[in-house]
């Protein structure tokens, strides 16, 4: 095993890097579409690359898969640079949004296509195809044609075809985008369970934040060709590192804030009051806090890490099991925050114009650089 791979071992999770992007860029003529990207992809993990259209996420997937060559940088597979290695020599398989199934072939022949190209013996092909169709719950559809299957079944055929050659990494380019909402949720659960069962690294592309949260071990967030944050869903949700991530990844209240003062007691002023500052926080900042992290004071004692602020209730939106409140905060009430609370008898008795008190934990607040 290379020294590079050993040095980058993920000791905390017990996983090593199967793929590393090192300073990878992409330009088309004079137009840069991907700034230098450094990204580690761990053995056996479900990594999602998340971002809006045009953010560069599919460009990264295509470079890993070999469909596009990087302009600069290295793509390391267990320490060996494969940036110039052709597609058919990379131990990866790709599942596309349109499935790319052969309409004139049965399910079994579609799934076994890659094995036939590799000149695998017929008996071995039959055994492996039957096994993988069982894995994706399509054992009874081997003789069907793609046109005779539902969208979810065609997606599972595409997955089976990707799995059967036992690749080191499976690349998935927004494979659920064409499915309706109910089938999409079902396939999300199926995909994650499948990945856990076969213990293969999945690199998944999506622009859907909820999809990324529900499926991923880690998420890499892209914006305008830049990799802006990598972390677990919980880390990115509760500790965004930029205004873009705070706004793009779920709903967030964003408020202006200013850090001032000298040690040992620097502080941050915001429409929610005063907060303790930490090293490196100075000047103009942004405060981010999730709607569900703000609560109405219920008369119970505050914990040592909790803060309170006065607010005026501007509007109430009933959402069924939860209720969303819009409140004005700040000295002159010029700033708005959203609060999402469980619907109870007390929330049902609230009315616009009520003065209320908010409470929250300082641990739920993130301070971000402005701009």
From TrEMBL:
<feature type="domain" description="ABC transporter">
    <location>
        <begin position="19"/>
        <end position="249"/>
    </location>
</feature>
<dbReference type="InterPro" id="IPR008995">
    <property type="entry name" value="Mo/tungstate-bd_C_term_dom"/>
</dbReference>
<dbReference type="InterPro" id="IPR050093">
    <property type="entry name" value="ABC_SmlMolc_Importer"/>
</dbReference>
<protein>
    <recommendedName>
        <fullName>Spermidine/putrescine import ATP-binding protein PotA</fullName>
        <ecNumber>7.6.2.11</ecNumber>
    </recommendedName>
</protein>
<dbReference type="Pfam" id="PF08402">
    <property type="entry name" value="TOBE_2"/>
</dbReference>
<keyword id="KW-1278">Translocase</keyword>
<keyword id="KW-1003">Cell membrane</keyword>
<dbReference type="InterPro" id="IPR017871">
    <property type="entry name" value="ABC_transporter-like_CS"/>
</dbReference>
<dbReference type="GO" id="GO:0005524">
    <property type="term" value="F:ATP binding"/>
</dbReference>
<keyword id="KW-0547">Nucleotide-binding</keyword>
<dbReference type="Pfam" id="PF00005">
    <property type="entry name" value="ABC_tran"/>
</dbReference>
<dbReference type="InterPro" id="IPR003593">
    <property type="entry name" value="AAA+_ATPase"/>
</dbReference>
<comment type="similarity">
    <text>Belongs to the ABC transporter superfamily. Spermidine/putrescine importer (TC 3.A.1.11.1) family.</text>
</comment>
<dbReference type="InterPro" id="IPR005893">
    <property type="entry name" value="PotA-like"/>
</dbReference>
<dbReference type="InterPro" id="IPR027417">
    <property type="entry name" value="P-loop_NTPase"/>
</dbReference>
<dbReference type="InterPro" id="IPR003439">
    <property type="entry name" value="ABC_transporter-like_ATP-bd"/>
</dbReference>
<dbReference type="InterPro" id="IPR013611">
    <property type="entry name" value="Transp-assoc_OB_typ2"/>
</dbReference>
<dbReference type="GO" id="GO:0043190">
    <property type="term" value="C:ATP-binding cassette (ABC) transporter complex"/>
</dbReference>
<dbReference type="GO" id="GO:0016887">
    <property type="term" value="F:ATP hydrolysis activity"/>
</dbReference>
<keyword id="KW-0813">Transport</keyword>
<keyword id="KW-0472">Membrane</keyword>
<comment type="function">
    <text>Part of the ABC transporter complex PotABCD involved in spermidine/putrescine import. Responsible for energy coupling to the transport system.</text>
</comment>
<dbReference type="GO" id="GO:0015847">
    <property type="term" value="P:putrescine transport"/>
</dbReference>
<comment type="subunit">
    <text>The complex is composed of two ATP-binding proteins (PotA), two transmembrane proteins (PotB and PotC) and a solute-binding protein (PotD).</text>
</comment>
<keyword id="KW-0067">ATP-binding</keyword>
<dbReference type="GO" id="GO:0015417">
    <property type="term" value="F:ABC-type polyamine transporter activity"/>
</dbReference>
């Amino acid at each position: 095993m290379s020294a590079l791979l050993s040095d980058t071992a993920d000791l905390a999770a017990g996983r090593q890097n199967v793929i590393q992007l090192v300073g990878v860029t992409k330009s088309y003529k004079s137009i840069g579409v991907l700034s230098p990207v450094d990204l580690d992809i761990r053995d056996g993990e479900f990594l999602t690359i998340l971002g809006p259209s045009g953010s560069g996420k599919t460009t990264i997937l295509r470079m890993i898969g070999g469909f596009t060559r990087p302009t600069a940088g290295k793509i390391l597979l267990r320490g060996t640079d494969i940036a110039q290695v052709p597609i058919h020599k990379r131990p990866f398989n790709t599942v596309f949004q349109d499935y790319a199934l052969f309409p004139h072939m049965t399910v079994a022949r579609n799934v076994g296509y890659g094995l036939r190209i590799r000149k695998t013996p017929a008996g071995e092909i039959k055994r492996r195809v039957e096994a993988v169709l069982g894995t994706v719950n399509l054992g009874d559809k081997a003789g069907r044609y793609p046109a005779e299957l539902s969208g979810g079944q065609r997606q599972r055929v595409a997955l089976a075809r990707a799995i059967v050659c036992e690749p080191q990494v499976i690349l998935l380019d927004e494979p659920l985008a064409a499915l309706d909402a109910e089938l999409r949720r079902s396939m999300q659960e199926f995909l994650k369970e499948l990945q856990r069962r076969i213990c293969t690294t999945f690199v998944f592309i999506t622009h859907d934040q909820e999809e990324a949260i529900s499926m991923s071990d880690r998420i890499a967030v892209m914006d305008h060709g830049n990799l802006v944050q990598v972390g677990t869903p919980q880390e990115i949700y509760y500790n965004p590192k930029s205004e873009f991530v705070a706004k793009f990844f779920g709903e967030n209240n964003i408020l202006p804030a200013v850090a001032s003062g000298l040690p040992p007691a620097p502080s941050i002023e915001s429409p929610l009051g005063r907060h303790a500052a930490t090293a490196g926080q100075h000047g103009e900042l942004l405060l981010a806090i999730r709607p569900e992290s703000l609560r109405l004071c219920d008369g119970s004692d505050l914990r040592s890490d909790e803060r309170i602020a006065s607010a005026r209730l501007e509007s109430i939106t009933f959402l069924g099991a939860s209720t969303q409140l819009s409140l004005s905060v700040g000295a002159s009430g010029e700033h708005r925050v959203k609060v999402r609370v469980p619907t109870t008898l007390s929330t049902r008795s609230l009315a616009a114009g009520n003065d209320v008190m908010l409470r929250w934990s300082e641990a739920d607040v993130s301070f971000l650089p402005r701009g």
